[in-house]
User: What shape does this take?
Amino acid sequence: MTQSFPYYLANRAVHANTDLAVEDKHSGRTAYRVAMADADVVDKAIAAAAAARRPMAELPAHHRRDVLRHCVEQFQKRQDELVEVLIVEGGKVITDARGEVARLIETFDIAAEEATRIGGEVLPMDITPRAETFWGMYKRVPIGPVSLITPFNFPYNLVAHKVAPAIACGCPFVLKPASKTPVGALLIGEVLAECDLPEGAFSILPAEREASAAFTEDDRFKLLSFTGSDEVGWQLKAKAGKKPVVMELGGNAACLVDADADIDHAVDRLTFGAFYQSGQSCISVQRVQVHESIYDPLREKLVSKVGSLKGGDPRDPDTFVGPLISEGDAERVVDWIEEAVGKGARCLVGGKRQGRIVTPAVLENVDRDCRVYDNEVFGPVVVLEKFSDFDDALEVINDSRYGLQAGLFVRDIDKVYRAWDRLDVGGVIVNDVPAFRVDHMPYGGVKDSGLGREGIRFAIEDMTEIRMLAIKRVD
Assistant: This one.
């Protein structure tokens, strides 16, 4: 029997319909049915969030912390259930699913700590004679109702990175999860519904396309936080009006492997960074610059290791590469590979499709105008290139409209600092891949990779405003 899930309107589960079918991404069969919100429901959710603005702002820090701790405890108790849902709706292999659930727990745990650290500063006012009789101080206050839109590829953790800081700082929110993977967000809503929060503190609404415009355009929202494609993200920003916008829009992450790198370590990490999540991560390794002196041995070892990766049933613990989110995406990835090969590239291993599974591919001699090089492939593909000069290689990495994170395998500290200074990215990861992320880090990109930073403390900064207080001493 297919399991049904409600949406959450003003903290309450509503079994309004079963309009949204959610597929098991491995079998293709309908696994869940989910209630969908129409424009009227979205409007009610926004009105409830607006009404909850003051009650949420007035919640004591210890109360917000305890709500987040309750979530941590429940997620820990329900780990097996959370993993199973992620395998089904996301097609994640079991090791990736367990890892994401662990990060969901960590992210809420970090937010529980940060909920009690939102402070301010005392400002010296006597920098000028006209203010020497004043005391000055500021604090951070919640910005108000926030609109949250999340993608399919991390149904727990990318939701957590928006929901947890909103609760931590006292912002009511309305969340629109991806229609391909909505159940994870609804399970988070199920746990939040157990908490003592003001009515309207949260709504979680898988929504029909015609109902979605309000998430961007409604002026009752005081912030839009969006994670998804750059094409959609910039369109939404143009329609967002006066509200600030935070966007994490992906990339085509690059790695540089210098002459003195540990080749075996680099190969292990490149294999993971390019092919975990079946490449469906915005910081998945896509382009690799390898010093010419080690290019041949690294290529040989990488091709051998990638060729041994097992694809198939996500529940099999030996499976490393599971299905892509849709058969159409699998077809697109193979089309991009074939386009590159048609322009002179060599596919050294993989690149074949069986249903939604694409065998991990390593390419070389790829024309930089090819989509598999220039765009975000969001699939299990990595492109190898040689370099001879370190500074030139940095410029090649920068020659992209994206700039999320980059990885360096290098031992020379001077080169590390040069890369940190020169790379146009949001983060530089040394002796590991750009897919590395810890959930308290400031995380985000430049150029077409987005605006602002996530990471709990940094998201709280976006979700709060500075309010100044100046007091004149009267003797």
